[in-house]
């Protein structure tokens, strides 16, 4: 190849590259990602992670969590600190402890201290399959850290909602399940989240700051007070019963009325285990056993929502609104 040909080749290659660059990512026309040119992108709607409570656990599992929670509560009392965390290996080995002493700085929360401690003591840098215990529910910062660290199970005593609404202790007002539910940016699955283990004991240890407004931890509760009894009233009528394939079948119609003064959105209902042959207006989530409205799930004060079903026998499904 002579020099002219070589220069020509180089020139042509650069020319080709400059054209290739015009095909760089253009958000207006690119098909990268899931949205088309006539859509805009925003975060995927996400539910909070489910939080298990002691009532959901097998007694033998609960006993293990209670023993480990009792241990960090005992350390907390011994050192007169509120927030203590511990980390366990999946084989059940206790790995390390973290006490929030406020040192070296304000972000030295129990969970962060425990993570750093495990790294320092045992060289652990990723906590896949590990379990973390904490006397108080992780704050938004620590919940995020626990997701990054890939903990499999997270267990706490006192809920953030109790810290902020009853104990008057300042924190970021957020259920950690909000963060844990957003695991999909980092992880394939959400961590297993268990709240309220030895809750009474943990709450008692946090005590109250409500009467200590000069404490640096004090915050005036900024919590919404919602009625514990639902304003929704459910009426059901049996329209007819008939004989079909050797058994009695009944048709029921029902109404859900909002007797309160506030709009109810996305109400859910528990029920007896009876299941209809067919139902309209309501739909059940078999995993949680909760019913919800099948259509526009908003009931204004005074408004009524109708549903109906056909069921074997003559008994109603007893629906109860969850508060
Ligand atoms: C994308 O479209 C907007 C609005 O029409 C325009 O201002 C912008 O220059 C376009 N971007 C590119 C990279 O073409
Ligand atoms: C459990 O794991 C820890 C940490 O890796 C290890 O030191 C310990 O020997 C293991 N114990 C058992 C019984 O496997
Ligand atoms: C680290 O954990 C050990 C127990 O494994 C504990 O003795 C020690 O106090 C912890 N260090 C800090 C800084 O919390
Ligand atoms: C975590 O546990 C799962 C299930 O027991 C196992 O398949 C996986 O290898 C474990 N990962 C690590 C890093 O220990
Ligand atoms: C709670 O109950 C009171 C009294 O029955 C009622 O005035 C109020 O609107 C209810 N609040 C909500 C959020 O339903
Ligand atoms: Zn924290």
UniProtKB/TrEMBL annotation:
GO terms for biological process: extracellular matrix organization. GO terms for cellular component: extracellular matrix. Residues 1-20 form the signal peptide. GO terms for molecular function: carbohydrate binding; extracellular matrix structural constituent; hydrolase activity; zinc ion binding. Keywords: Metal-binding, Signal, Zinc. PROSITE patterns: CYT_DCMP_DEAMINASES_1, CYT_DCMP_DEAMINASES_2, PROKAR_LIPOPROTEIN. Residues 63-183 form the CMP/dCMP-type deaminase domain. This is CMP/dCMP-type deaminase domain-containing protein. It comes from Dictyostelium firmibasis.
